[in-house]
Amino acid sequence: MTTLAWVCQAIMLVSGAYGLYHCLIALPVVGGLRPPAQLTHRIHRFAVLVFAKDEAAVIEPLLASLRRQEYPADAFEIFVTADNCTDDTAALSRAAGATVWERHDTEKIGKGFALTWFFDRFTKQEADKFDACVMFDADNLADPGFLAAMNRQLNAGVPVAVGYRMGKNPTSSWVAGTSSLFWLLQTRLFHLPRARRGLPVTTVGGTGWMFSLDTLGPDGWHTSSVCEDIEFTLNAIADGRHVGLAMDAMFYDEQPLTFAQSMKQRYRWSLGSVQVLGLIGPKLVKAVRQDWRRTLDALLFSIGIPIAGASAIIGVIGMVATGVSTGLWQLLIGGLLVGAVVSYVAVTLVAAWVLKLEHAHWPGAWQAALAFPIYVFSWSLLNVLVLFYRNPVWKTIPHVEAVEIDQLQAPELSKAPEPAPIPLQRPAS
């Protein structure tokens, strides 16, 4: 038991070093992001893709926000994939002026299958009309400057970019508040520091992102995990493509209302991360040998969920082994309780600091900060679960918050001054 305890402690030291790496790369936490230098001044044509499964309650506000883009109306087209819908999603989308493709397949259920189905058709019929795609979920809202911001990314030579994500409904429940806080934390502590260092962003988050059709390639879209967004991102990085952060491409995303919905959603993310490691991990390892600076960080990111789950298990085994070998159970339990309190306070303070740095204020934001440790701890349990139980069946989360873009207020983001605007140029026809 003594030997086992020492082995567990050694493994936990390695795990701690992994966590320390992510803490160090997040520094400095304060500050913004300088806009990318423009290499050209084209007006690119966007295919705006919306994937919907029975989203009649929320899709109209999204389509209205897209129609209000401060971008030439003839330079983008909205495509809605009505995926196995049983409500009025398709009819409402057509009435709003979108091109609607209806998919009916009760065996292949999930966004990944819908994406493959859509792009198999799109690459043959429509792709030559566009330069890039922008992807949204039906419950989103797009800031009026979203497409213009993504156009600047393309003009800067960035083939893939993720926007600035905010919760659409942080006041709806404490769960929605903590979920909204998570996205702000991801931007501040993960995306932003990497973008400032010239490293690729490691995940596009599934919605509110853009990619050049050159990135997609002639074979279309083919992902096989339940986290198609992470799979696409890591695959693009392994192929040597940069994934940028567009802080000025703001959008709003509906968050789960209940704890059970949040657990289902995060279980899918954890499961997908484990799947992606097996699918893209070997490719990333090979890419590290060719361009270690840009790909090593992505490789380290890809192993995060397995390390988190294994660390939790090793920590428990190590504590039990130490207790059995020393008999100091009271001391161990006391240390565990003190560590839990310290961790709770530390996570709460970090959450509150992120709210301050992101200028994010809503009624009950302090409750989200106080509850955020619960959000983090419950995710730790899910990371353990996916090591032993993997159910890839897609679980739909209902969206019911029909909020208009005018009802939301964007934060005043900390960023470097933008250069003087330069007139955009349409590509030669």
Notes on the protein architecture:
- There is one protein chain.
- About 2% of the residues have low confidence.
- Strands 3-2-1-4-7-6-8-5 form an 8-stranded mixed sheet, with helices on both faces.
- It is globular and about 75 Å long.
- It has 13 helices and 8 strands.
- It is of the alpha/beta class and 429 residues long.
- It starts with a helix and ends in a 44-residue tail after the last helix.
- Helix content is 51%, strand content 12%.
CATH architecture of the domain at 31-262: Alpha-Beta Complex
Question: What is the typical, i.e. mean, pLDDT?
Answer: 91
Total number of helices: 13
Principal-axis shape: globular
Provide the CATH topology of the domain at 31-262: Spore Coat Polysaccharide Biosynthesis Protein SpsA, Chain A
Radius of gyration: 22 Å
Helix vs. strand class: alpha/beta
Please report the first level of CATH classification, the CATH class of the domain at 31-262. Answer: Alpha Beta
CATH superfamily caption of the domain at 31-262: Spore Coat Polysaccharide Biosynthesis Protein SpsA, Chain A
End-to-end CA span: 74 Å
- Describe the sheet with the most strands: 8 strands, mixed
* H and E order: HEHEHEHEEHEHEHHEHHHHH
- What helical percentage do the residues reach? 40-55%
Strand content: 5-15%
Q: Give the uncertain stretches in residue-range form.
A: 413-421
Strands in their spatial order, largest beta sheet: 3-2-1-4-7-6-8-5
